[in-house]
Amino acid sequence: MVRVLGRVTSINVRKVLWALDELGEIYDREDWGLPIRDPKVPEFLALNPNAQIPVFIDDDGLTLWESNAILLYLAKTRSALLPVDIHAYGRALQWLIWQATELNPAWGYAHHAIARKTPGYDDPAKIAESVSRWNGQMDILDAELAKGAPFIAGEDFSIADIALGLSTHRWLRTPFERKALPHVEAHYERLRQRPAGAKWMPDNIP
Ligand SMILES: N[C@@H](CCC(=O)N[C@@H](CS)C(=O)NCC(=O)O)C(=O)O
């Protein structure tokens, strides 16, 4: 059976769990990650030297980290969750990588300050800068979804929608002033209609 190491309060862990549920795979999940179980121990570092969750272990023993790489691996090995059309495939990869490299870094400071209340994240200028960057990235996503396709790469649901849906979930549930982004919100509601989407974007976990 495949294994996933990581607490469900991490959106990066929930990306993998959502994909596995879409695929109908049975998996075993172990709680790792602060504050539940410190990953900075030799047993965990042997699996991921970054001391980060998620870690995915396939049933043949392959061990992977980096949530979006795990999504790509699952899509390739299970022949699912990526569009067949080559242009739509390219767009799915583009948005998946954008989520990790542009969108995710934008919310870092604001998320620690506003949602987690992490000590040391209390500089008003840095909070404002992070909120502004985060909203700016969400504007980019809204403009793409305004083109009318139901999913980010086109007609088909893909792993890029998983990564973006969870990101939107965090954006909507972080208590700060935000303008309405109707296309982002419609995409989010469409994803919540999927059983696995509703399961992994619950109201009680931002
Ligand atoms: N780029 C990594 C980031 C992973 C990451 O930042 N994980 C966080 C949780 S979301 C983590 O492990 N934090 C330390 C901890 O929970 O102990 C990925 O996408 O998998």
Summarize the structure.
The chain is an alpha+beta fold.
Helices and strands in order:
Blueprint: E1 2-5, H1 11-23, E2 27-30, H2 42-45, E3 55-57, E4 63-65, H3 67-78, H4 86-116, H5 124-145, H6 159-173, H7 182-192, H8 195-200
Parallel strand pairs: 1-2
Antiparallel strand pairs: 1-3, 3-4
Helix pairs in contact: 1-3, 1-6, 4-5, 4-6, 5-7, 6-7
Residues 10, 12, 33-34, 39, 52-54, 66-68 line the site of glutathione (GSH).
Give me some keywords for this one.
single chain; four-stranded mixed sheet; Glutathione S-transferase Yfyf (Class Pi), Chain A, domain 2; globular; Glutaredoxin; alpha+beta; 206 residues; 2 domains; binds glutathione; 4 strands
Into how many domains do the coordinates divide?
A: 2
**Main sheet properties:** 4 strands, mixed
The largest sheet has its strands arranged as 2-1-3-4
Estimate percent helicity.
55-70%
Number of helices: 8
CA radius of gyration is 17 Å
Net shape:
globular
Structural class: alpha+beta
For the record, what CATH class of the largest domain applies? Mainly Alpha
What CATH architecture of the largest domain do you see? Up-down Bundle
Mean model confidence by pLDDT: 97
Order of helices and strands: EHEHEEHHHHHH
Distinct small molecules bound, one entry per kind: glutathione
Question: Could you please say which CATH topology of the largest domain applies here?
Answer: Glutathione S-transferase Yfyf (Class Pi), Chain A, domain 2
- Which ranges are low-confidence, i.e. pLDDT below 50, for 5 or more consecutive residues? none
- How far apart lie the N and C ends? 28 Å
Number of strands: 4
How much strand? 5-15%
